[in-house]
Design a protein that fits this description.
Keywords: Iron, Metal-binding, Oxidoreductase. By secondary structure, the protein is α+β, with helices and mostly antiparallel strands. Helix content is 27%, strand content 22%. Residues 1-19 have low confidence and may be disordered.
């Protein structure tokens, strides 16, 4: 079933929409030379951080279905090492057409180029609304605003879409199916890497009804990038996030206490392990902290596809990975829906909610 925003819906709910502005429109103002104080994140940004360029692990997706046992065993080992050491890796040979990835980014660009009043028709208060446009992280509670506009569209288990731009529905439906397949196949390999059956995570998390969301992030040029932040250090909810972006850098991943600049190869997915994979693995695979910096020259566009359990699934550490004496359960159980509602309704903070459910 496809759900779209209709004009009737817009008119009925207009008085519920929060009053927000768009960073894009602010950045494009003709007399714009300095940012408003509410966007001032830190005057010491990047001056005290250790930033490095390191080789991010690369996973060859095609080998997950290899008929050669040694090749499959090798990629399972590579997944285990990437998840445990980095929580982040680059996927090549994933099978998603590069043309589809590019068209999806183009559709997101077209959305952000719509008139502000049209985009604000998607500005819902409900953090779990199937379609939601906004700025910063959560303007209703943010003390400091972040230099981004975003669009969140839920695409599974029920597919939602926008009436505009034209072709958004068709392209996003195909793209969602393709990325969901990649995520589920990666999770089969990750399941094996934990010593579990191949389909353990898929079945336990009811991934046939997984909660999939597309999140487009627009980071316009900022006249004072040294004191603004696109998104501060944070981890993602869910199991895996698959991300693509345009050719403008800004993504950094925290690795061994250093911020690593991410330079993706063409036609690849950037994948990070998320909070609920950390919970499932009882802390063996950590959800990785990452952040988005801004610049004063070009617009950065990214598109994340997040993949989580079924909304009503209570996520706890896998029994086989818990030992009451040597490795007791490190996390309390919570439904995925409760977790997301609590996370998205509060200030963004590194692993704040994950820390709250630790035993």
């Amino acid at each position: 079933m496809v759900a779209t925003i209709t004009q009737a819906h817009v008119e009925t709910d207009a008085h519920f929409r929060p009053k927000i502005g768009c960073v894009k429109d602010l950045a494009e103002s003709s007399d714009f030379t300095s940012i408003p104080s509410k966007y001032s994140y830190s005057t010491t940004l990047n001056q005290q951080d250790v930033v490095a360029d390191e080789q991010i692990p690369i996973i060859d997706f095609s080998l997950l279905n290899s008929n050669i046992p040694d090749q499959r065993a090798k990629v399972i080992q590579d997944l285990a090492k990437a998840c445990q050491d980095w929580g982040f890796f680059m996927v090549i040979n994933h099978g998603v057409p590069e043309s589809l990835m590019e068209r999806m980014l183009d559709m997101c660009t077209d959305f952000f180029n719509l008139a502000e009043e049209e985009k604000l028709q998607c500005a819902e208060v409900d953090v779990l609304a199937p379609i939601r446009f906004g700025t910063s992280f959560n303007p209703s509670v943010d003390k400091v605003f972040f230099w981004r506009d975003f669009l969140r569209v839920r695409t599974h288990p029920q597919f939602h879409s926008l009436p505009r731009p034209a072709s958004f529905s068709e392209i996003s439906l195909e793209y969602s199916k393709r990325t969901r397949h990649v995520a589920r196949e990666l999770l089969k390999g990750i399941s094996e890497s934990l010593g579990l059956e191949e389909c353990y995570i898929d079945k336990a998390m009811e991934l046939e009804s997984c909660y999939q969301v597309l999140i487009a992030n627009l980071y316009p040029p900022c006249p004072q990038p040294e004191i603004a932040m696109g998104l501060p250090p944070h981890s993602d909810h869910g199991l895996l996030t698959l991300l693509i972006q345009n050719q403008i850098g800004g993504l950094q991943v925290n690795h061994n206490g250093k911020w690593v600049n991410v330079h993706p190869l063409p036609n690849t997915y950037l994948v990070n392990t998320a909070d609920h994979l950390e919970i499932l693995s009882n802390g063996k695979y950590k959800s990785v902290l990452h952040r988005a910096l801004v610049n004063n020259k070009a617009t950065r566009l990214s598109l994340a596809a997040t993949h989580g359990p079924c909304l009503d699934n209570v996520v706890t550490p896998v029994t086989e990975l818990v030992d009451s004496e040597n490795n007791p359960a490190q996390y309390h159980g919570m439904t995925y829906k409760e977790y997301m509602e609590a996370l998205l309704s509060n200030h963004i903070h590194p692993k704040s909610l994950l820390d709250r459910i630790r035993v």
